[in-house]
Write a structure and sequence with these properties.
This protein has 253 residues and is α/β, with parallel strands linked by helices. It has one domain: TIM Barrel (Alpha-Beta Barrel), CATH 3.20.20. Helices cover 44% and strands 17% of the residues. Strands 1-2-3-4-5-6-7-8 form an 8-stranded parallel barrel, surrounded by 7 helices. Helix 2 packs across helix 3, helix 6 packs parallel to helix 7 and helix 8 packs parallel to helix 10. The chain is globular. The chain starts with a helix and ends with a helix. The mean pLDDT is 95. The structure holds SN-glycerol-1-phosphate. SN-glycerol-1-phosphate (1GP) binds next to strand 8 and helix 9.
Length: 253
């Protein structure tokens, strides 16, 4: 099953999912094996592996460790065309449509295309939208783009619609890793009303309450990175929040 098929069928059933972001550049800073095992214990649906800056060749080893410890699918979340690792399952082919940097709209994709074609990876064309998270994030600096204003849901909705009309299959709203303020529920709801594709939301989701708000506003999949590194209790909280949505969905079937 491709990631997209899985997300679409879960969406049709009203089911929600959560993913744990494993940043290759921080792998030295926490107990990687333990984080992976705990994520599996709390039934994380996916691992996202990637980030804006990767300063060492660790992705392959990270994925090998994940494979040894769990069966959770691994999705690459690349910062640029250097970040392709064929041993993953899927790759989010991000077009940064909130920005006006041609390199991240199409340039890196041209460089990566022949490698991607040969990689055997399940590739998901993704409308990637950065939303102002109240603090300068690495991704806004590295991408050299202005994020979408957090209080302009109408602009976000039109951007997401354009992405879908261009053929992008997944919409990813990201306040940036370590955002002070996550993507606002009103903005998620406006995008939810504007597109049919599954919606991923990440950045600054560091509590069960924020997870609930994002999912309740229409996110299908939430992505959590920093919060899990900083607060070991967050994983069971996320699992509970997602399970509460999913038990409602099975009651309603
Ligand atoms: C992935 O940027 C997120 O989209 C992860 O952000 O590290 O703040 O959870 P956090």
């Amino acid at each position: 099953h491709s990631l997209l098929t899985t997300l679409i069928s879960r969406r049709e059933q009203g089911r929600k999912s959560f993913a744990v972001l494993l940043d290759p550049d921080k792998v030295e800073q926490y107990d990687f094996d333990q984080t992976v095992s705990r994520a599996a214990q709390h039934q994380a649906d996916f691992f996202l592996v990637g980030g804006s800056l990767i300063t060492d060749y660790v992705q392959r080893d990270m994925i090998a460790t994940i494979r040894r410890l769990t069966q959770i699918p691994v999705i690459l979340f690349p910062g640029n065309s250097l970040h392709i690792e064929p041993s993953a399952d899927s790759l989010l082919l991000l077009s940064l449509i909130s920005g006006r940097n041609p390199e991240l709209l199409i340039g890196q994709h041209v460089i990566a295309a022949p490698l991607l074609k040969r990689s055997g990876l399940d590739i998901i064309p993704t409308a990637y939208m950065l939303v102002d998270g109240g603090v300068p994030t690495t991704v806004s600096y590295i991408s050299n783009t202005t994020p979408l204003p957090h209080d302009k849901p109408g602009v976000a909705a039109c951007t997401a619609m354009a992405g879908e009309l261009l053929g992008l299959r997944l919409t990813y709203l990201d306040a940036g890793s370590g955002a002070r303020r996550p993507v606002p529920p009103a903005l998620i709801a406006a995008v939810r009303a504007a597109v049919d594709s599954p919606i991923v939301v990440g950045g600054g989701i560091n509590s069960g309450e924020r997870a609930y708000e994002a999912l309740n506003a229409g996110a299908d999949l939430i992505v959590v990175g920093n919060g899990i590194e900083q607060n070991p209790d967050l994983l069971p909280e996320l699992a509970n929040v997602v399970a509460s949505f999913n038990s409602l969905s099975s009651v309603n079937q």
